[in-house]
Specification:
about 35% helix; three-stranded antiparallel beta sheet; about 20% strand; five-stranded antiparallel beta sheet; globular
Length: about 210
């Protein structure tokens, strides 16, 4: 387990208490996920985790503090289970993070830790972006709504929650850039802070699939 302030442990325990009343079995049925009466198996950007009132762990491991996934991964999974919409709105379009109604407090951090980092990590390496994304289960973004760019993909980050990425390499006029989009209903699955965390997990795994995130 990563070294972290005591408050993180308090947050973790609070989430476990809140999950006691969550209908995890119904979520498993809704998204056709494995459930063993205690824990649900949730795919998250190329990895599968078990989550439930006893804790979070990589699939195949026993929930325990020594092997617990990073805090942002745990919180993202907890939020998904607690907020999961029974009837999500149609995902008819892609939106930028800043376009969500409650995103304002997190917009600056999202740019710095997600989009700016994505551009930095793949500047001069755009040919490597799509192969890295495919390791996470992504597909090339080639639909009519795809922006013109050097590399683009879309991915089901968690069951029902879709993301897309468009990136351009540096040229003589502009620096490298990366843009992360969400399906317009993404806010129904995660709060804004957790959506930002999901973006951080994405760019970390794109750079290194074996990242601790």
């Amino acid at each position: 387990m990563e070294n972290q302030a005591p408050v993180f442990e308090e947050v973790y325990k609070d989430y476990l208490a809140r999950l006691q009343s969550a209908d995890i079995a119904a979520i498993a049925r809704q998204w056709n996920l494995s459930f063993n009466n205690k824990h649900i198996c949730i795919p998250l950007l190329g990895r599968t985790y078990t989550a439930g009132p006893e804790g979070v762990a990589l699939a195949g491991e026993t929930p325990q503090a020594a092997t617990r996934p990073p805090h942002i991964t745990c919180v993202t999974l907890f939020q998904y289970l607690l907020r999961n919409p029974k009837n999500p709105s149609p995902a008819k379009s892609w939106v930028c993070f800043r376009d969500f109604a409650d995103a304002a407090p997190f917009v600056g951090g999202f740019y710095d830790t997600v989009e700016k980092r994505l551009a930095k990590d793949f500047a001069g390496l755009m040919d490597a972006l799509l192969p890295a994304a495919k390791k996470l289960g992504a597909k090339p973004w080639t639909d009519n709504d795809a922006p013109k760019c050097d590399a683009a993909f879309k991915i089901e980050a968690m069951p029902g929650l879709f993301m897309a990425v468009a990136a351009n390499d540096a040229d003589e006029l502009f620096p490298a850039s990366g843009h992360v989009f969400f399906a317009q209903n993404a806010h129904e699955f995660l709060d804004m802070e957790s959506l930002a965390m999901l973006g951080m997990i994405l760019v970390a795994r794109l750079k290194n699939f074996n990242s601790r995130y």
